[in-house]
Amino acid sequence: MRRVLVCGWVLGLLAVQPTMALETDQYEAWGHDLRDATDALNAKITYELRKVLDRVNGRRGIRRLTCDTVTNHVAAHFRMQIFHPIEIWASKSPLIERYPPTEEAELASRKTNILGARVPWDVGTWLPYGPTIEVHGVRIGTDKMAHFFSGGSSYYSLYVRALHQGMSAAEAERTVIDRGIFSEKTYLGYGTSGVLSAADLEANYRGMTFYLGLCGGDAPQLERVGEGYALTRPFDVRDYVTVEWDESYNNSGFIRRVWKKVKPRMLELCPLLDHPWVVAQRNRYRERDFETPTEARMTQLIAAGRMHDVSIYSLQAVCSEGSP
Questions:
Q1: In terms of C-beta density within 10 A (0-12 exposed, 13-18 middle, 19 or more buried), how is residue 61 classed?
Q2: Is 176 helix (H, G, I), strand (E, B) or coil?
């Protein structure tokens, strides 16, 4: 009976919140070389954007269609429930090198990754884990593309609504970031998988900037051509991905019952902190690191006692502390 109630609860959440995605573990890909997927991902997303524009441009009354309405069509095309097409494509396409590299390896990793020591009734174990790919020199889970497009569209809608309510751009941005953090602390993070993913929040935010940039900013990506709309340039994921998308660098937080399972597995990774591959990656990341708007807001909330500091769950902190 409890399982039925939990299933109903989860399905209810999914019906109203199209930003849920798979969990991921970038630690397990450490030391494994991956071909950079930037070009393949750019080509796929550009193709999808042009497909949306072809469909929109074929509509009657296109001359009366505003650029913002076209943005809504783009958002609707990419926004999905749970299994996002772009995420599935990145997880399955032969154009993308990933880790685990095969379905058999992925099945095995469900038991061995840092999140694998979970009980069957734990909601976080009901979906497969997203593999790791490399994009613009950053290791990310394929779930980040779902967060970028679906989470980003939710952020975008809330941001536009806040502006219409009279908020300034800064106030609207803070409202959006606060809503995202709240969702991770409750129904999309701790409340389902038991994991608060700071990296997911970063992908959500950057997705919002993508939607805002379709019609706004100094160089909009959409332009009116004749009676329809066209891209001014191909999509480029390098404009959006940051090192904060890597969950082995921008670590997650965990509720107590999940942390009891995760911590022992993280302790096994401590020797890898001195591995040349890991040291080199961390050095490259630090050169590209900067404080993002989401990080700045989280720091404020932690200082105000309104949010738990997730840095205690970083591998460095765990290894410094020692045994569980």
A1: exposed
A2: helix
What domain range is 204 assigned to?
2-321
List all residues 6 or more positions away from 315 whose beta carbon is below 8 Å from its beta carbon: 27, 248, 251, 266, 269, 270, 273
Residues 6+ apart with CB under 8 A from 290: 242
Do 78 and 145 touch, CB atoms closer than 8 A? Answer: no
Residue 297: CB atoms within 10 A of its CB come to: 20
Q: What is the pLDDT of residues 5-48, one digit of tens each?
A: 334 334 333 333 444 456 789 999 999 999 999 999 999 999 99
Pseudo-torsion of CA 93, 105, 248, 209, nearest 10°? 20
Inter-residue contact 53 to 231 (CB < 8 Å): yes
Total domains, the chain: 1
What span, in angstroms and rounded, lies between the C-alpha atoms of 237 and 254? 29
Q: Alpha-carbon distance 267 to 273, whole Å? A: 11
How far lies 229's CA from each of 49, 202, 224, 295, 323, in Å?
Answer: 11, 29, 5, 35, 59
pLDDT tens readout for residues 156-193: 999 999 999 999 999 999 999 999 999 999 888 888 88
Beta bridge mates, 130: 24
From the list 294, 190, 319, 185, the residue with the least C-alpha distance to 244 is: 294
Reduce the DSSP state of residue 88 to 3 states and report it: helix
| Count of beta carbons in the 10 Å neighbourhood of residue 23 | 24
Tell me the whole-structure pTM to 2 decimals: 0.90
Question: Bridge-partner residues for 196, per DSSP?
Answer: 253
